[in-house]
Amino acid sequence: MRAAVLTDERPRLEMAEVPTPVPGPGEALLRITGCGICGSDLHLASQLAAPGAVLGHEIAGVVAGVGAGVDAARWPDGTPVVARPFGGCGSCAYCRSGRADHCAQFQLIGLERPGGFAEFVTVRGDELFKLPGTIGADEQPLVEPLAVVRRAFRRGQVTAADRVAVLGAGPIGLAAVAWAVAIGVEVVVVSEPSALRRDLALGLGATAVFDPTSVPVAAGIAEATGGGPSVIFECSGRPGLIEQAIEIAAIEGRIVVVGICPQNDEIFPFWALSKELDLRFAIYYGREDFIDTLDALDSHRLDARSMVTEIITLEELPDRFARLEREPDAGKVIVRP
Predict the structure, then answer these.
(1) CA of 253: how far to CAs of 27, 172, 247, 249, in Å?
(2) Judging by beta carbons within 10 Å of its beta carbon (0-12, 13-18, 19+), is residue 78 exposed, middle or buried?
(3) What pLDDT, on the 0 to 100 scale, is given for residue 11?
(4) 185: buried, middle or exposed (CB in 10 Å: 19+, 13-18, 0-12)?
(5) What is the DSSP string of 269-318?
(6) What Cα–Cα distance (Å) separates residue 5 from each residue in 14, 41, 73, 115, 150?
(7) Which fold has domain 2-139+305-336?
(8) What are the mean pLDDT values of the chain's consecutive 10-residue runs (337 residues total)?
(9) Which of 48, 51, 53, 160 is the most buried (most CB within 10 A)?
């Protein structure tokens, strides 16, 4: 099958022919219909993934076969699905509670296992979720990043009464805007240097956007939120933004860090202490986050279609990946083999 693989010249990808995977016991084979490019893919390609790796974990596809122990009657060939892209030992307390991402034997599809930047991928059969027919092809690969943010909203205990600020309007930040609007938040402000992404945030329902390179963000957000946001989502992973979130948060506010910062960062704890802030972190998701996301998309309470700015082919991926690594100049880019 065709796949985009990581070369020795990281983070460069190149097209290659690799063996089509065969589903083992407890696994399903998916034919990929769409796979989103995640910011973490760029981090993995630059630092963690081994040459030869096939990245991509925002997977949508159709079942193309199942291994022993997977109910073929429940998952017949052609069933449209998404998958939580990881697995663990299956027997520890974390796995039994649905949080295999904390298992000592955790494996992420697109890192420890081949991922979705290919024609086919194998996933655990118990991590499949059937896609409702109401969710269009462009939305299907968004389920995984939207589930990330659903988890972050649980961590932030967000309600419609909150005033929300989003720092960084990449795909995760845009998903945060979409979820805030979906649950009825009336004040959603965004700080983002890219004009394209600021426009995308407005299109999703943000009430105000700021360019942090040209305006005093703290003062602007304080004014736009009437005294400061009660919940802040740090979605960029850039050093210094947790400190900025502490600066702009309202008294007794909650800060949820979702962005991946691959280096040391510093904060001045006294300001967080003086405001009695909650600083929380969110990564991955439980099964309930996938279920909630699918239900919200199915009922059209959640509309994130405008996050998608490009649909590209697998052959176009290496060049587009390199451009995204140099300059994040898009919303969500979807790869269709």
Answers:
(1) 43, 21, 11, 6
(2) exposed
(3) 94
(4) buried
(5) HHHHHHHT-EEEE--S--HHHHHHHHHHHHTTS---GGGEEEEEETTTHH
(6) 6, 12, 34, 10, 30
(7) Quinone Oxidoreductase; Chain A, domain 1 (3.90.180)
(8) 96 97 97 96 91 97 98 97 91 87 91 96 96 95 98 98 97 97 98 96 97 91 94 95 96 96 91 97 93 97 95 98 89 96
(9) 53
Neighbours of 4 (CB within 10 A): 25
Structure tokens at 217: 């963000």
Work out the number of other CB atoms within 10 angstroms of the CB of residue 147. Answer: 26
- Residues facing residue 226 across a β-bridge: none
Residue 14's identity, in one-letter code, is: E
Strand, helix or coil for residue 199? helix
What is the pTM for the complete model shown? 0.95
Any idea how long the chain is? 337
Kindly indicate whether the domain formed by 145-281 is annotated with CATH number 3.40.50.720: yes
Cα–Cα dist 313/33, whole Å: 11
Peptide bond between residue 11 and the one before it cis (omega within 30 degrees of 0) = yes
Q: Where are the domains of the chain?
A: 2-139+305-336, 145-281
